[in-house]
């Protein structure tokens, strides 16, 4: 058991990579056999394609299938290339239908068709059904293999059914109860069945206040429902409210982790990528960032135009230029604080799209308070080192910029949501760049007013 | 059942708030009775303290306990103030020990002591044991109420024990197997017991490659283990490797959601707050942002000093000022892309602290590529509108700033981790502000070199 401890010194410092390089197959094979599943999966993911293939081929057949299932689709795809066709068929056949669909989404269409063709008729039906639902929908993610009960069953009958049907099911802990038309009428748990008398009826044990989603529901919404409700599995129904699958808690956690990575990328003004960092080439990493940088530099070009308009003012009072970075940084920071706050609040439904006015009004007051604080803090040193009028320009600009940037930062995630865009695209870099030009307009407006230039 | 649909039109548009205001107790009570648990919890969380208290007091006793358990500790605390003492005792007694500990962490010490004093001796022991573990540790979060089995038990005996001991346990789906000294030797699941013959031995069914954590393990690490392994419950052991609790998947999801909110706050340069956005006053919101803004404006003051040094150059070539916002924005954007990328990769262990050199070297090449792209894109328009030498200064600055900012953005989260600080503090606003002064040095360095000023 010790071998499975995450930081176990016995395994942590013998990297597979060096054993692969040494070409000592026996030592590598022995080493792999001692590793816990989790370490093994984590270590494989850190190898290059060739080394990963060498190590994987040395795994015992059933263990290999387990490892394959635990790997991210992107690694699964990379492994497939180096394996014999019969081995590939075995691995694909062993995957749960929902995991199989995620892999099929990753590979080129030609490979996907070849893999589908190799499936048994039964597994093929399960897979193509899932493939029929839109991407990012609960239907794609659900497991079509579940055990359902009827209200009229006794607990004894239910347990017997679970014993027979439960072999292929992804979970038997959450048990949907259906009527004769396969409509969902309640849910019970294996726990309730096990602790109760065998003559009781399922209908008397089931909970009828059931959470469920439609096959077309957004995966993230469904997964958050599993999380907030603390469910083991969430029933998924079709347009006629008939049960067609269940979304299990482990798949929900995977979705939430993937959404978190996607939001983190957007919040950093990067194009989300499914591949873990070290598995990406330098060129691919640059590609996830180039588009946003270009968009942002075009937006930033507006600041050049604004400054050009005020070039004479700048020539007259060069000291004005000194405060440009500080002022636009502060505006960007206020805007970033408000936007990251709203992106998160919208994601977890702490605020709803209809709260937009209430939120912007709150943020206006927050921004004003922060602006007054920063304006006061900046006034004294600028007045002492330069002169009171310049200090007044800087302080007035800080108050205005903070209020305006905070309001804009709070409003933009709502605008994105309204436009059907993920609010997370309103990133700190985007809001910073967007409020810069307006910040400069405010600054030179006050400068012209107060310094009479 | 329809009433529990997240977007059910029948309930979504009859807010509790207006019923509370109308003082029609009967209508409010009827309305509350029709609501699903989830909607009820969500709606209560949107009310002010008084309205929440009015609505809560109208709930039927057992339902109230369920709702109370489902509320965040911060709302639980706000509710307690308005309730009669006997009601409070009942609610606290009904909470699971781990949920109770989370509430006790929220309330003032005086209130916590009064609540503890009211507990039954049995519940008191469970609670004080958990309170003995460090904050943010797995021990605080685990449930001490679990069902454990012995390897020598038959499945029939195991099921009988589960039926007796399982009533108070938080989960009976994951079943730790212990030896005579209560050491963890394996884990099995209710599923395995239910589908197998009653004469089989637990020892033959259990999995001995068990993941577990110590009571002092970090909550986030433990919760991520539950997520990546797809566990129903993770065993928690003491220093002598004896089982003392289990961390269930629903609690793990709560931890991950809380960590995500905390990271989101840090990434937006805000002090994390446990209270949902709309439940915070405008002043409290401003307070979560003020400190970071002050730190950042002090850091930004460095840009004023740098520009002051180059005031003569600026006076000679005012056009240099025009590109300041664009150049520092771009540097900040490159740095933000790299830092957000590393914060996430470190959080999910895609990269490890020892990868720092490899990562910074990769990012140097990424930054160089992006800088070359942006420099080339900027050269032509600047050369056409102004003059080639100024264009050369801008392009050379872009190449250098992008490379430098990308490296710094990638390295800083590792530095934070090394210093024992959450890498998420390396936010886009922080990195933007930090690289600005150095960006200006680079810019005026090139300007002096190329324009001979």
UniProtKB/TrEMBL annotation, chains A, B:
The UniProt record lists the keyword Membrane: yes
Keywords tagged on the record: CBS domain, Cell membrane, Magnesium, Membrane, Metal-binding, Transmembrane, Transmembrane helix, Transport
Cell location: Cell membrane; Membrane
Family statement drawn from the similarity comment of this UniProt entry: Belongs to the SLC41A transporter family.
Membrane-related topology note: Multi-pass membrane protein
SUPFAM superfamilies recorded: CBS-domain pair (SSF54631), MgtE membrane domain-like (SSF161093), MgtE N-terminal domain-like (SSF158791)
Cited CDD domains: CBS_pair_Mg_transporter (cd04606)
InterPro entries: CBS_dom, CBS_dom_sf, Mg_transptr_MgtE_intracell_dom, MgtE_N_sf, MgtE_transporter, SLC41_membr_dom, SLC41_membr_dom_sf
Protein name: Magnesium transporter MgtE
Gene Ontology MF annotations: magnesium ion transmembrane transporter activity; metal ion binding
UniProt cross-references to Gene3D superfamilies, sorted A to Z: CBS-domain, MgtE N-terminal domain-like, SLC41 divalent cation transporters, integral membrane domain
A cellular component annotation (GO) from this entry: plasma membrane
CBS domain boundaries: 142-205, 206-262
Listed SMART domains: CBS (SM00116), MgtE_N (SM00924)
Assembly and interaction partners: Homodimer.
Role description: Acts as a magnesium transporter.
Originating species: Candidatus Neomicrothrix parvicella RN1
Record-annotated membrane-spanning stretches: 290-307, 313-332, 366-386, 392-416, 428-451
């Amino acid at each position: 058991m010790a071998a499975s401890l995450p930081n176990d010194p016995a395994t942590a410092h013998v990297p597979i990579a060096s054993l692969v390089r040494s070409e000592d197959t026996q030592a590598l094979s022995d080493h792999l056999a001692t590793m816990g599943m989790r370490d093994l999966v984590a270590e494989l993911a850190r190898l290059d394609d060739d080394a990963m293939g060498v190590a994987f081929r040395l795994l015992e057949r059933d263990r290999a299938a387990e490892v394959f299932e635990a790997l991210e689709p992107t690694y699964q795809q990379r492994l497939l290339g180096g394996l014999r066709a019969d081995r590939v068929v075995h691995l694909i056949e062993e995957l749960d239908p929902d995991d199989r669909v995620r892999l099929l989404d990753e590979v080129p269409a030609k490979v996907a068709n070849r893999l589908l063709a190799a499936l048994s008729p039964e597994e093929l039906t399960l897979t193509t059904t899932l493939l029929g639902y839109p991407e990012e929908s609960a239907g794609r993610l659900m497991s079509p293999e579940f055990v359902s009960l009827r209200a009229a069953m006794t607990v004894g009958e239910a347990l017997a059914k679970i014993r027979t049907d439960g072999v292929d099911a992804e979970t038997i802990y959450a048990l949907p109860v259906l009527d004769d038309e396969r409509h969902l009428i309640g849910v019970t748990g294996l726990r309730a069945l096990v602790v109760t008398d065998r003559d009781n009826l399922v209908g008397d044990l089931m909970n009828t206040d059931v959470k469920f989603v439609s096959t077309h529901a957004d995966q993230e919404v469904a997964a958050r429902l599993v999380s907030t409700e603390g469910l083991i599995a969430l029933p998924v129904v079709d347009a006629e409210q008939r049960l067609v699958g269940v979304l299990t808690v482990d798949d929900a956690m995977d979705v939430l982790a993937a959404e978190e990575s996607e939001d983190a990328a957007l919040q950093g003004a990067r194009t989300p990528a499914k591949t873990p960092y070290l598995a990406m080439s330098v060129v691919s990493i640059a590609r996830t960032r180039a588009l946003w940088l270009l968009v942002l530099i075009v937006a930033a070009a507006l600041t050049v135009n604004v400054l050009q308009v005020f070039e004479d003012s700048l020539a007259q009072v060069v000291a004005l230029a000194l405060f440009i970075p500080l002022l636009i940084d502060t505006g960007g920071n206020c805007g970033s604080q408000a936007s990251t706050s709203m992106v998160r609040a919208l994601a977890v439904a702490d605020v709803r799209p209809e709260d937009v006015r209430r939120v912007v009004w709150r943020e206006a007051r927050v921004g004003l308070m922060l602006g007054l604080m920063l304006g006061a803090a900046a006034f004294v040193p600028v007045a002492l080192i330069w002169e009171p009028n310049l200090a007044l320009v800087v302080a007035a600009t800080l108050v205005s910029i903070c209020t305006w940037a905070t309001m804009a930062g709070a409003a933009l995630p709502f605008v994105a949501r309204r436009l059907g865009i993920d609010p997370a695209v309103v990133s700190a870099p985007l809001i910073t760049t967007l409020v810069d030009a307006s910040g400069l307009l405010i600054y030179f407006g006050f400068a012209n007013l107060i310094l009479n230039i």
